[in-house]
Every structure is written in structure tokens, then in C-alpha cells.
Amino acid sequence: MKRIVFITACLAPGKDGLGDYSRVLAEACSKQGHAVGLVALHDPFCEEEQTESLVGLSCLRLPTAASWAQRVDRARSWVSEFGAEETFFQFVIYGYHPKGLPFQAMPHLMKLLKGLPGLSIMYHEPWIGRAKNEAFHHRVIGSLQRGMIRQMHRQALPYHAFTSNPAFQGLLQHHGMPTEVLPLPSNIPFRPEQAHLFPAWIQSQGVSLSSDTLSLGHFGRIPHQWQWENLLEHLPSLCLRTNKKKAAFIFAGRSDRESSRQLVREFQKKAPGIQVLHLGPQSPEMISSFLQYIDLGIATTSPQILGKSGAFAAYREHGLPVILAGEAENFRLPLPQHAVTDYPRCFSMDAIPGQLSSWIAYPLPQDTVQTVAQQFLQAYPPKESVYESSRH
Questions:
Q1: pTM of this structure
Q2: Measured CA angle at 360 (ends 358, 362), to 5 deg
Q3: Cα–Cα distance list, 328 to 132, 217, 339 (Å)
Q4: What CA–CA distance (Å, rounded) separates 239 from 246?
Q5: Is 104 helix (H, G, I), strand (E, B) or coil?
Q6: Which pLDDT band, with edges at 50, 70 and 90, does 207 fall under?
Q7: pLDDT of residue 392 exceeding 60
Q8: Could you give the 3-state DSSP secondary structure of residue 280?
């Protein structure tokens, strides 16, 4: 049995995707027989320190109102009291500053990480300004972020470093941070016993979706740029391949309300016969029911970094065919320029598979959480850090 502590910025359930991810993966490690704890270093949803149990796991949540020195000292003592043998730091730079420039936080984070036992780091998102077509100010901010992350990595001396996709792996490697790819598990577990929830919601809205309707679903935030016009143009082909006469779009999860309204107006203008429904933020059980109901999942993340998408992980968990509708990220470095995934049921709009009807009729749900937990656990006992010589 291992004693592992997951460390992230925020652990408020349903409020922070990275916190939800940490909790789900920690729970999976616990189910495999390990003692697991959770620490939130920068939680804006608690006014004072909270020590509580989340999904049966010991948890420490530290408020943003406390000073960084106080939080680092408290986190270090809590990890020590827990008897942690291994620590897994989940990092997104925006978790520590709304504009992604945590100049105040970074020295304290480095101080904390340097003393943690068996440290691994998961880089969920490196830095902005990666693409050729990004605005100059994004490239400036990205350069500052990259400098902070490189300094943190070199001082922390992790035994393992992970990221979610080969493109980010290549980006980090290029800047002196070797990583392994650890896929994201789904935050939405497959719940077949809850399949009735979404059809009941549809009925309560007075909406009718007939059996000859192709239901396309999008889960998560709606990005400002994605290939929605291209998707509308390919709808006749999608309907033809699936023997459907019409189509409906269903959007679920948190999204900017005005962006959603604007998208509906654009859809109605371009294709007035299409039904558009908004489910909004819901419980994991309702989202699972929604994912079991729809025929196709829409992935709006750039295909090259598909592995970073929690929505894609949820589609995969539920065995859905996934259509790639994200704008390509034109990296400035020679990184993968296409989707890299071992999931066979995803496709681009210009390559609609002949077996699509079969995929819709026979979904293949996967337990992504236990699979990823096992992959993480197998990385230990820690191999010698690539920086091990610096420790002595």
C-alpha cells in the first residue's frame, strides 16, 4: 500500500475542473488499496481552512485569504502528518492567478515542491502563445509563463513529470522538461442506472426528438472559435450515413450565456430547421444520462491537443463516436499537426467513417478512471529523477 497526496489549487466540487479531476483520480487510487489524501493550496470557495472528507478521502482546503507563507507551512505539515510517501502536484498556471501571471505565488510553490516526498508533476496546460497566429501580447505572456514553469520544474526536481498529450510532451521536452503522457480520465463516470434522467428532462421541457433525429451533443464550455460552420455543412452527409432525416444539437455544461445565445442565433440563421437545446450545468448523473442519449459527441478542442480535453475523456468513457470540430493549433515548433489518440471512434468531418451507424448503435463504454489510475501507480516506485544528481 502506498500513501499518496494529490495537491492542486482548488477542490470545490463542481467548481473547478482540475479539482474534480484530482478528486476522481485520487478516489480511483484509493479503490486500488492505497491511502490517499488531497490538498487545495488556493481555494477561493472556502473562507477559512477546511479539513473534511471528500469521497471518503482526507482533505485539506486552504483559503486564498491566508498568506502564501501560512499556506505552504500548513500544507507541508499536513503532508508530513499524513505520512505521504508520494505526492502528485496538478498544475495549471491560471489556478494561481486569473491572468496566468502568479509572480507572488511561484516562489512559495517552488519552496513547497522542493521538499515533497516522491514528487510527480502533471502539467495540464503549459503556457499560451504557442501558435504562430496568436496575438503578440499572448506570446509575451506565454514567454513569462514558460520562464516561471521552467524555473519551477528545475527547482522541484520531480521524479516524474506528466502531461496529457504528445504535442504538449514535445513542447515541454523542447524546453528542457521531459515528460510522460498520462491521459485524462473522465470526470463523468458511466452510470447506466441513471439513463432515464435526460429523457425525463426532455419531456419536462415539452420537446420532442423523434427516432429519425441525429442527436449531436457538446459537453463543456463553448469556445470562441471552432468549426461549427463546417459542421453544419457536413450535417447532410452525417444524416445520410446514419439513416437520419434531421439533426438536433444539445449543449450541456457551463458556458458563457451570451456566447450560447449568439451560437443559437447563428445556427438558426444558417440552418433554421435544426433543433438546439441547452441543458446547462448539471450533476454528473444527469450528464452521464445525456451522454448515453446522444448519438455523437462534438470535440471542440484543437485536435493536436485532444488529450487535454475533459469533454473528450467523458465521450470516451461513454463509448461515443466523436467528431473533431476544433480549430487546428498551428504550433510554432515542429509538433504533431494532427489528432494523436488511440481512441478509434473519433473522426474528422472530411472522413466520415462507413461504420458510424454501427458505432452509434453499439457504444463501447470504457473505465477511463481506473485505467489512468493504474498507469499512474505503475510509474512508482519512483524511477531516478532525471535531475537526481542535483539532489546530492
A1: 0.91
A2: 65
A3: 11, 20, 9
A4: 7
A5: coil
A6: confident
A7: no
A8: strand
